[in-house]
């Protein structure tokens, strides 16, 4: 009987165990989903600011040229994006229609808007790569040709002192081309770009650049908006964050022009580091841009008849790639002459005319500025109000057309300057400088710069 009792006990145990397995299944292992990331880069040099839409909603309201937005965390699946240009009328124009991407898990995407607004060739360029760690001691990068004005090029990656050779070509890229991931040891490098097959014509030279261990970079060549001989600059995006860096050509210069806006002063000479750079500049004339090596310079404005009579003595720090206009403003009889230095941005936009007004009249006081379709401002609203002496309006985008510029004392409808008839075209820049009248007694007027003279 003992063996029967033991058998019964064993069966009972198996039944209990079996019951436990039926009611308590093994826990399911859930693997977390790793989101993708998306960055968007505005790489269309002649386009205005744009709005970037993601899955039907505005993700970035204002994205300017050579700027990057993101990273946006995006769940794997279908992702839709579109890009709208912001027109001067306030309307939007779709330049990249809704584009659907199949987003993979744990993948980074960079969407470049590339092409030209002038010929309606804007399109998306998508670069993608996995979110994997960079191996110790190395740098991972990829290079994108996003400069619509540039031809097919060779990209050379060398040590700083190495000569170019066929063996230094890291990639040959036509416009909208991109390399895959390239891994190199961390260290000091130099990036040079040449026309395809050339080892002597260098159109871009980064100079020495340190690439730190663990860095993951997307590097894009863009049409340059900087002063200097190179047609391109580089935009480096650091993956894993929102850091970006513009790398200018080592030959980038500072571009400077000078405006004589002192109506009661005689012709002047401009001395740079005590060497005459400009001779006998008279009111209300101005110079073309002159290129200087980026540095700090001592600038003196002196009477042409006697350089011992100095009315401006100032140190001017000039940054690489920057454009400047130096206005001499004030009045000689008031002993108030000074330098007004403004930064210029000569990037033209295919969808708008750009107009800028600088208040250089020492007599006018605060003013209102009208830009109207006809000369009657009686019921018009001022485009700019309460503009102070030496103020700079910045670049204002307006539709192309015929306009009248009128300047009044703030709150008045009586013209102090104008109305001046002007024609403004898209893809052009216009600068108007309010000035005193000759000898401080004649009528106030405007000095017209940039495309007013073309």
Quickly describe the structure.
The chain has 454 residues and is mainly beta. It has one helix spanning 2-23, and strands spanning 36-42, 50-54, 57-63, 68-74, 77-86, 92-103, 107-114, 123-130, 138-145, 153-158, 169-173, 182-185, 187-195, 204-211, 216-223, 232-238, 244-247, 254-260, 268-272, 275-281, 290-292, 296-303, 310-317, 323-329, 338-344, 353-359, 367-372, 384-387, 396-398, 401-409, 415-424, 429-435, 445-450.
Secondary-structure topology with pairs:
Layout: H1 2-23, E1 36-42, E2 50-54, E3 57-63, E4 68-74, E5 77-86, E6 92-103, E7 107-114, E8 123-130, E9 138-145, E10 153-158, E11 169-173, E12 182-185, E13 187-195, E14 204-211, E15 216-223, E16 232-238, E17 244-247, E18 254-260, E19 268-272, E20 275-281, E21 290-292, E22 296-303, E23 310-317, E24 323-329, E25 338-344, E26 353-359, E27 367-372, E28 384-387, E29 396-398, E30 401-409, E31 415-424, E32 429-435, E33 445-450
Parallel strand pairs: 1-7, 9-15, 18-24, 26-32
Antiparallel strand pairs: 1-4, 2-3, 2-5, 5-6, 7-8, 9-12, 10-11, 10-13, 13-14, 15-16, 16-17, 18-21, 19-20, 19-22, 22-23, 24-25, 26-29, 27-28, 27-30, 30-31, 32-33
Q: Could you explain how this protein is built, in words?
A:
With 454 residues, the protein is mainly beta. It folds into four domains: 97 residues, Immunoglobulin-like, CATH 2.60.40; 116 residues, Immunoglobulin-like, CATH 2.60.40; 92 residues, Immunoglobulin-like, CATH 2.60.40; 106 residues, Immunoglobulin-like (Sandwich). Helix content is 5%, strand content 50%. The chain is built from one helix and 33 strands. Strands 12-9-15-16-17 form a five-stranded mixed beta sheet, with no helix packed on it. Strands 4-1-7-8 form a four-stranded mixed beta sheet, with no helix packed on it. A hairpin with a 5-residue loop joins strand 5 and strand 6. It is globular, with a radius of gyration of 31 Å. It starts with a helix and ends with a strand. The N terminus is likely disordered.
